[in-house]
Specification:
Elements: H1 13-25, H2 37-50, H3 54-91
């Protein structure tokens, strides 16, 4: 398959930055957070390696962790409910 010649294309960085700013402002709240220096030292190289700004990466990590915790808690609640049913059945 012949690859198309894309050398004449250019990136409109101004428009791209406008779009990124508009998307990043949706549902965002500015806060101050105290982090320990070790966490920040670990986060910044990860940010550089992924190319994701460290504050956005921190937000992603927090969101992922909270979502996983909610999922774990809901599974635990469901398992506890099933265990109560089994205990009632065995006791009967």
């Amino acid at each position: 398959m012949k690859h198309p010649n894309l050398s004449h294309l250019s990136i409109d960085r101004v428009a791209t930055n406008k779009i990124r700013r508009a998307l990043s402002k949706n549902n965002r709240v500015t806060i101050t957070v105290n982090l320990d220096s070790d966490s920040l030292k670990a986060l910044k190289p990860l940010s550089r390696n992924t190319g994701i700004p460290y504050q956005r990466l921190l937000n992603t990590l927090l969101t992922t962790n909270v979502t996983q915790q909610e999922s774990i808690q809901s599974r635990l609640n469901r398992l506890e409910q099933e265990l109560r049913k089994i205990k009632r059945h065995v006791a009967a």
